[in-house]
Structure formats: structure tokens, C-alpha cells
Amino acid sequence: MAKYKMHVLVCGGTGCHASESDTLLENLKTIVADKGLDNEVQVIATGCFGFCEKGPIVKIMPDNTFYTQVCPADAREIVEEHLIKGRKVNRLLYVDPENKEHISDSKHMGFYKKQLRIALRNCGFIDPENIDEYISRDGYEALAKCLTEMTPQQVIEEMKKSGLRGRGGGGFSTGLKWEITSKSVSDIKYVVCNADEGDPGAFMDRSILEGDPHSVIEAMAICGYCIGASYGLVYIRAEYPLAIDRLKTAINQAREYGLLGQDILGTGFAFDIELRYGAGAFVCGEETALIHSMEGLRGEPTVKPPFPSVSGYYEKPTNVNNVETFANVPVIINKGAEWFASIGTEKSKGTKVFALAGKINNVGLIEVPMGTTLREVIYEIGGGIKDGKKFKAVQTGGPSGGCLTEKHLDTPIDYDNLLASGSMMGSGGMIVMDEDDCMVSMAKFYLDFTVEESCGKCSPCRIGNKRLYEILDKITQGKGTRDDIDSLRNLSHVIKDTALCGLGQTSPNPVLSTIDNFWDEYIEHVTDKKCRSGQCKALLQYYIDPENCVGCTACARNCPVNAISGERKGIHVIDQATCIKCGACLEKCKFNAVFIK
Amino acid sequence: MGQVKSLADLRKIKEELQGKMSLREKSNNPESLVQVKVAMATCGIASGAKQVMDFFIEEFDKRNIQAVVTQTGCMGYCFAEPTVEITLPGKEPVVFGYVDTRKADDIIEKYVKNGELVEGIIPVNYETIEKK
Amino acid sequence: METIKLTIDNKVLEVAKGTTILKAAKEAGIHIPTLCYLHLKDLNIENKPAGCRVCVVEVAGRRNLAPACVTECTEGMVVNTHNIRVLNSRKTVLELILSDHPTDCLICAKNGNCELQTMAQEFGIRKLHYEGEQSTYREDTSPAIIRDVDKCIMCRRCEMMCNEVQTVGVLSAVNRGFMSVVAPAFEMNLDHSVCTYCGQCVAVCPTGALTEVDHTNSVIRALADPTKTVVVQTAPAVRAALGEEFGMEPGALVTGKLAAALRRLGFNYVFDTDFAADLTIMEEGTELLDRLTRHLNGDKDVPLPILTSCCPGWVNFFEHQFPEMMDIPSTARSPQQMFGAIAKTYFADKINVKREDLVVVSIMPCLAKKFECQRDEFATNGNPDVDFSISTRELAHLIKQSNIEFNALPDEDFDNPLGESTGAAVIFGTTGGVIEAAVRTAYEVHTGKKLEKVDFEELRGMEYIREATIDFNGLPIRIGIAHGLGNARKLLQDIKDGKSEFHAIEIMACPGGCIGGGGQPLHHGDSSIIKARQKAIYQEDANKTIRKSHENPYIIQLYEEFLGKPLSEKSHHLLHTHYFDKSKDIKVVE
């Protein structure tokens, strides 16, 4: 057996994959082999490191060197310089945005300093396609412990004690859910893993499945043991081909090892897992809709109760948990509920993975203890706002959440605080907005999403959200009135009150929270017909400054609608009635004469 | 690999596998371990640094010492190759010159195990980017 | 029985565990408006997708409002059905639905009979606060049903009928969000689907999204054409329901007024489909006895059970779904088509009118009849045996348009020779009736004995699948009955699996039989109406002096003068048909 002296970990997550990390991996392997180092250096693909902004990532162990934005062409230099000569390739190291220094060890990077990785513990550390690497990191130890040393009830108690709450958005106690399902009497029960991640910008579930599929498999088996199910299903979006591949590989490996199948670890417990593919409907993340979709029906929610834990998949008791929730389970069993409960806030234990996106320097996937403040996440981990702009708001909880502002920055993040601030945890999407973002447009963006993703079953969601969108659109077109804002409010409340499922009940949140937090902006849009961020094109007006205009006619020649008049060498004027606000004049003017007001 | 039939099986497999992964596990937390850096530039390799490095890796394993052995570039002490930098947990790094396998054995037994210095220390330290 | 105490609008109630708020409120005399909800109690059909959200109520301690139709009562629950929050939400939801609904009410087929319109009126909607884009779709006209789904409100009643009750599976929700609508897969046209035209979707549609193809104008035109002799036949179930369209109690029998009205409309001859029903019994009953005798004599190739074939929805169903079993149903045509064939031969000759100049109109409780009369095999040289089939509802419109005060009409008789019928024919209108009529005749023909008691109570009722054994003088005849195509499917599956023990089975596509047909006056969810019609049908039978088909003097005369005997060559030619494998006819267009 080769005893490797060095391990080269190449991120094989979808983000880095899209930046050719697969070619990079191949190049590294080839060059290492060419140099005769293949007995000394192990090159593997891992799951996501989270720092997607700077991908593709390559990490070299044991010296813990963290290379960022590595191209396939960099492979040779890494091998020749670093692997052979032991010299780090400086240009590929992360540069601290503050003091411009090169940082070699990820531990010293702001992005990682405040993170605590439980759900993501193996992502970027092990080869997700190799069950051995998972086992070596206590993999399946928790399942073994449950099966051989604990009764189902003891496991459930442990889960309840840990305080783990559903990471898919609802925040329901996982232990309690397991307990309810375990108490439902039925010949057949099911464990379902909800991998129908649909929030715009959120990709933690995908990353876990790509980077550490066995943790989910192990947790599902543990859940099966607790509730008395021997059959598990993973409902995963078909748009996650890599996650599907890795998960399939992992399931097969677990079967080969006898960790799935009949008589697991000689205990008589049987459990196996199959995949079900979703076609990418956001509403199928709602558990009843998900179950209907798995049954081959239209992905539509039904009224709860009955809850799936009583009557779910084919009317059998079904325990549905989200990927991230499951990923926490083996650690809780291994390290104990008390350890887990020591992390986080009073009512929200453990960590939460967030997908940082928007106008933030370090876009990526992070995991922090509950109770970390938004400020820490945005400024310390996220590296602050891009291009030194001013922070305006952060949307948490995706389209179901609300936006939080400056005044919420020091709020410790947990389920209850976010809810109290008018937003929600959701699945952990976090989209940061700066001064250039128009909050009315932001609300419109999310409504556009919910209108598209509504299943159409209940009238308030099907028609109400469409109407909300239309009013918002009217406002961004400069045609809104004060009454429209009142209409938005009334309609939002009715939709929240009457919609059938979580999607509809939360879809007006972006509208309500932007009205609450950015009332002035709405008023500006409807009374002054102004958009301070300049995002609402219809509200912009292009002017030519007579001081700067030299009469070169460049603007007039490039105006697609002939809205600009003026003699050569004379001052030009834009006819506001004709102008379509395309911005061509602004782009063409070399004398800074065109400006927007 | 065959089927994992019992908890004992699983633990056995895990132990076997941990050796493979120990390099990664250890490097996650090198501060608490013995860190050995072998200078592996042309000069070092020509003077037998590779054998020295292999020796360290194998011997730490045999003698059950938790250590991280990494290679590094030329430390600038080409006259004294192979050179090895050893950092004991919580202590300043010490550089040894003219290290062959015999001397390496000496270093492990005396310095690493007991903190006794051995001959051949190069007293001048140097800075790396991280320590700047 | 475990009970629960709760408070609704300050009334303390005690209800059985599992009762919904809607039902509890109803018991307490509190009316909670509903739109998508549909409960046909006597037929055990319930639609409760909780989609319209009109029935929301406030439950103390609950974050949002609760849909009363599906929310079960819990101990100590405090419900408020009409506070400002509830009323505002309910009205807003209705306004939203209306904002995505065409406002052509005045010229809509359902004008005055639309549940959405009624609700808007009840709610006092005067202004839509939220207006915007409307979802529009391609209109789809089939031989029997028009889908104008711009008017679909996604109540899903049709979908439930088509899938759960009928198991035909043509209609289901398609598209997402604002463009969601109920349609055949891939938004195909109905006539490219396996639709049976049973019309149960039309029967439950609260709006004008699903309506029948209206042939009243064609009828008016034929009546106005001096070169045409126009003959009308009216199905048994029509007389038990038409009165409802004129404000009469459900179950009012209007046979006499019906004949009078048809005469005043200008039909040259007012006949009765019941006559043809008697004829059907002669042919189908004889076929049953023939198959039975051959089977008893050891001919194992003779397929048993024999299945009735008078229901066109049912015929469409097995042609699409069970093509391998096409030799099982009787080859006898439906009464509508037997009537047409006899009218355009025997009767045309009698009155010396050329086939082309004779127009046969049928009044049917059914929409599938519209399709049936357009089948190629029921036409001679392109001239159909039955020219136009209109529904009970269309007839009511026709009467209203023609300034006839229906309620003031005297009772009149049908014309002869095709207007005389027996009690056996009348009961064709309800589930169980055809087989009872067949038994009355088959018994006497087979045993040569006179039936002492013609009422076979064991064949009657509303149970979906019924079975009975009739003693044919020592020979036990096993009879099966199913209504609703989903139940028919179960019996067919048994036959397919070789598990069926029946000799004869009656199948009706519509729940309740023709009295619950897709062309009947709308019941708007009140299934007691269908029960009342059934009662009326049996009443009409009991009132008849002749109650066995083979005793109908005009039937006897028809065989003597024209057909010879049942299953004769002429009968085969005019009164029997064959079926087509349509399982592969489903095509995707566009």
C-alpha cells in the first residue's frame, strides 16, 4: 500500500467543476504520474470547500496550503514547484483584502476563521466517492452505535436533547418529528430526504450531497432505525447531476459494505435507499407536495394535518428531513447531544449553513454557530460589501424570507430572532444588497419567482401573487400611486392568511418587509417617481449637460430612437418623451456630458 | 473490501483506514503535533533529503509519535543540507543541519521525545510569508 | 362515538370526532360559503382540495385562517366564521378569482346558473380592487363538450370526477402558477383524448368552463324548414328532471307537459325513446338468453357475462380502455340509435317521407349521446339516424326561448306508433333499470311463466356495485350492476382476471345512471336531487299498466310488420352494432 506523503485535494463541487476543476484534477494526476510521484502524492477530488468566490480551490496537505482560482494550466507549476521543490506558488495563494498579504493556510483567512463546520465537516476534506475515507472519519460509527448500543427511543431522546431543528426552513424539532413518526402505527414507514433545494442562490444541500453523501445515508439509516422504517427515499432535483452521481456511488458502496441492505452490522436491521428525481419545482420542497411528486402525482401540497409523519408517502407514516438536518445527525450521535446543545443559542442549537451571495466579497457556502451575528457573517466571513459600497439589506430565507437592514446587523442569527425581525431562517440563503439595489425591484424579483413557482392550486397564491407582482411592476414603471402601496399591504396580509401551503403563506414576506424597512423608497417611487438606486429604468431620465456638450453628435448618431437633437458643434438635447432609456448616449459620450437624474 | 458484518468489523476497518487519512487529519491541527519540515530543493535532494524525509515519516509511525512531516523549499543553508526544521508544540522552530538517517534517529529520540538538543543546530531563524 | 365540544360563532356544539368545521357549522345552521368544495352525499363523492380558500374561518390561536372544508374540529376549538378578518379575506379571495375570470357573464352559457356568479352576487362584489392580466387558453370544442378554460377557477371538481369517480383520467391540472388550468395532458383536444363524453365534468363545473355543445339552433332551424318532417324522441330520465328547470321540486314527473311542450315547439311527431328502450330489451334480452342457452349447452366459447350497451359513455370507455373485451358487451344499439334507425326506415316508409327529409331529434340527459349520434356506423349514405341530440338543459332553453309557459301546459300523450312504452322502458333512466327490464322479459321468455311480481327491489338502489341472484325457475341468474365508470372498471377487471361470476351486468357511466347524466339540470352539489329523480322514475313505472317490454303492443306490431323476430337479419342490420378498438387512437396534436 502506498504511503502517501502528500495529499492534493481538488474541489469537485459544482461551482469549481464549472470552472474546469475536473480538467485541473486530470492534469495534476497526469503530471504527478509523469514525475513518478504517484506513489507519494495522492490527488483526489473532494466536495465543496465553500469558498466558491475563489474557486477552483486546491488544498495541499500536510502543509495546509490553500490555493485559489487555480486553472488547469497551473497544474504543472503546482507539481513542479510545490510538490517537488516544496515552494509554495505564491500567485495562487489567497490575498487578504485588508492588508494585501498572501495567506497560505485557510485557517487564517477571514472566510474560515469564524466558521464551525459540523454539517460540512467532510466537505472539502474527503473524497466523496470513497467510502473508506468517510469511515476513517468516524463514518457509520454513529449508525453502529445506535444499532448495537441504543434503543430507538434512546436515539430519539438523544436527538431531542440535542435541540436539532429542521434545517429546511420550518425549524421543527427533529427529535420530536422522529418520535411522532415512530409512534405512528403502520406496517410500512418511510424515511424521506428532502433534497429539493429550491431557494434562489442556496446550494448547501447540493454541496453536502456532493461532498459528503455518506453522512446523509448514515443519518437516514439511523432515522429508519428510530421510526421503524426500512426504506428510504431521497427526493433530489434532476438538475443536480453531480450530486445524484455521488449519491448513487455512495449508496452502492454502502450496499457493498453491507451498511445498507439486510441485516446491517449483524443486528437484523434492514434499510435501503432509492432516489426519486424532482423536475425542479420550488413547491416540491414543501413536504406534502414532495410526497405527491414522488407518488407520480402533480407536485401540489395538501392541507396538513394529516402530517406526513402520520400519513405520507402512499399514506404511510413518512419522516421527511432536509439534507442538512440529516448531515448533523451522525455527529450528534458520536459526540453526544450535550456537545451539540452547547453550540448555538438557547432555542437554536448547533450550526447553520448559509449560502452567501449578492453584493458581497466572499460569495460562498459557510457554516457558523447559531447566534453568530449578521455583521460577523457579512463583514468578517463575507469580507464585506463588494467594491466598498454601502450595505443596504440582506435577504434571508430566500423568497419566503424578508430583508433585514442595518439595524438588524447585530442580531444573533437563530430561528426565533429572524422570525421576530420579519424574516426567517428558510433554508439558509443570504443575499446581500448594497446601495445600488432598489428594494421595490428586489421585492418584484422575489414575487416573479413565486409567481413562476406557485403550483396554482389555491387562488390566493395563484392569482394573488400575480397581482402583487403586477402592482410592484407598476410601481417600478413609475405608474404607482399611494393606494398601490396600501393594496400591496392588504393583499399581502390576505395571501398570508389564506394561502394553502408555506410557499403561499410566506410569499408576501419580501413585499411586507421591504415596505416596513424601506417605506421611503416606496414613497419616492410613487410620489416623486424616483428610484434612488437607479435600478428602475423607467424612472430614470437622461440629460445632456450643456456645460460639457461639445456637439460631437456621437450621442445623436447612436440613439436608436432619434430622441436626441442638436446641430453639429451645438448643444444637444434629449427629448424625454421619445427616450427609451437604453443608455447608449451615456456610453458613447466621451465628454461626460450625458448624466442620469 | 468485504462486508462490514459487525461493529468490531467497522472499528477494525476504520483503524486500518485511519493511517491513510492521518496525514490529512493531522495537518488540520499541526500546532498540537510535532511538525517536521524537510528542505527539499535541488540541493537538499542531492544531499539525500528524500531518504531523510521518508525516514522521518516511517519512524514517527513506528514509534507512535504524532507528527506532521512536510517538505519545504530551500532554507538557504545549502552548505548544511539536508536541513530539517522541527517545531515542537508550543515551541519555537529549531533547524538542524547535516541530517542523515542516523542523525534523524538521534533527533527523534532526543529532541522530539525529550526536548534535548542535539548537535548541528543552525541558530539563525528565518521568516516566512505567514510569519511576517 | 367519540365527540368533541367546540364553539362556532359563540354557539357551543358537540360533534363527532373527525367532523370538519364546515359540516359542524352546517349542523348548527351556520352557512359557510364554499366554491371548490363538492359533496354528493348520496353518491359518496367528495371534492375537497381546499384550493379556492373561500371557506376560510378564524380559529382562535391559529396563525392563519383555516379552510373550513378540510379542517377537523378539535376539542375546545373556538371558530369565528364572519369577523372582519374573515370577511375581508374571503371577499379579497373572491375578487382575486374574479380578476382572472372573463366578465362576459351576460352571454355565457352558464349565465344565471353559475356558482361563481351567484357567489359574487351574494358577497356584494361591486368593484375589483386587484385587476391585471388574465390567463387565457385555447378553446376546445369536441363533438359533445366545449372547454372554455379561461373560465376555469381550478376548483378541480371535474378532475376529481374524471379521475377518481370515472377513472377515465383525461382531465388534470397542467401548467404552473398563474397559468395552471385543468386540461387533458399536453393540453390536447378532448377529441384526441380517451374522453368518454360522459359529461360528469360538465355536471359539476361551477362556471362556464365546461359546457355542452349547444345544438338548439340546429333544431330551431330544422323546425323552421318546411321541407323537413321533424321527429323527436325523449329519453326516460328527461321527464324526471326537466321540471327542475322550471322551478318544480326535484323528482316532479313532467311526462305529459314534456309531450305538450315538444308539440308546441313544432315537432311533427312527438315520440318517446322509451319505445326504443322496449325494443332494446327485445334484442338485448334475446341476446342474453341466446348466449346463456348456448353457454349452458356447453359452448364455452360464448362469452359471459353479457354487458349492457345502451350507455354511450360506457361504450366509449371500453373501446378506449378494454379493447380486448369488445366481444363481451351486447351488440344491441342504444335506444337512441334504435329509435333513429326505425324512424328513418319503418316510420319514414309509413308516412311516406324520404329519409333525407326526415329529421330525428333526441332529448337526452346525456352528452355522450351527441357523440354517439355522430358515429359513422349510425349513418346511411352520410345521413345520420339521429340528426341532433340535445340535453335536458338545452330543451329547457328551447322551451323558454319559444315563449312556452311550461308550468301552465296541459298533460298530453306521445304520438304513435313510436310513442308507446312500458314501465320497463321508463326505468332505463336509473341505475339498475335496464337489467330489471331485461329480467322481466327474459324471465318470461325463458321460463314461459308469467312473472307474479315485476318489481325487483334487489336490483334497485344507489350502491355503486350491486349484485343479485334471480331465480329463473331453478336456474340462478347472477346479475351485476355498476354505475360510475370507476366501478365499471372494477367489474371489468374481475372479468379480465377470470374472477367474475355474473351472467349479466348492467353498466351506466354516470353515477345514478341517466338521472345523474351530464346533460341533466345542474344539481350544484345536492345529490338528493338525483335520488328524487330516481324515485320519480320508479313511480312512473308503477303507474304504467304495461310493465314488460315484450307486451308493448306497438313493439309486437313492429316485429310483425317489419323486423320479423329479435336477432333477425333486419334486426342485426338496423338494431345491432359492432365496436372499435380505440386504444391506439390517442394522438398528440401540435
TrEMBL record, chain A:
Keywords noted in UniProt: 4Fe-4S, Iron, Iron-sulfur, Metal-binding, Oxidoreductase
Top EC group: oxidoreductase
Matches recorded under InterPro entries: 4Fe4S_Fe-S-bd (IPR017896), 4Fe4S_Fe_S_CS (IPR017900), NADH-UbQ_OxRdtase_51kDa_CS (IPR001949), Nuo51_FMN-bd (IPR011538), Nuo51_FMN-bd_sf (IPR037225), Nuop51_4Fe4S-bd (IPR019575), Nuop51_4Fe4S-bd_sf (IPR037207), Soluble_ligand-bd (IPR019554)
EC number(s) recorded for this UniProt protein: 1.12.1.3
Span of domain 4Fe-4S ferredoxin-type: 540-569, 570-597
Family matches, as PROSITE patterns: 4FE4S_FER_1 (PS00198), 4FE4S_FER_2 (PS51379), COMPLEX1_51K_2 (PS00645), PROKAR_LIPOPROTEIN (PS51257)
Alphabetical list of Gene3D superfamilies matching this protein: 3.10.20.600, 3.30.70.20, 6.10.250.1450, Glutaredoxin, NADH-ubiquinone oxidoreductase 51kDa subunit, NADH-ubiquinone oxidoreductase 51kDa subunit, iron-sulphur binding domain
Gene Ontology terms, MF aspect: 4 iron, 4 sulfur cluster binding; FMN binding; hydrogen dehydrogenase (NADP+) activity; metal ion binding; NADH dehydrogenase (ubiquinone) activity
Record family assignment: Belongs to the complex I 51 kDa subunit family.
Name of protein: NADP-reducing hydrogenase subunit HndC
TrEMBL record, chain B:
EC number: 1.12.1.3
Keywords associated with the record: Oxidoreductase
InterPro entries, A to Z: Thioredoxin-like_sf
Sample GO molecular function, one term: hydrogen dehydrogenase (NADP+) activity
Ubl conjugation among keywords: no
CDD domains for this protein: TRX_Fd_family
Listed name of the protein: NADP-reducing hydrogenase subunit HndB
Annotated gene: hndB_2
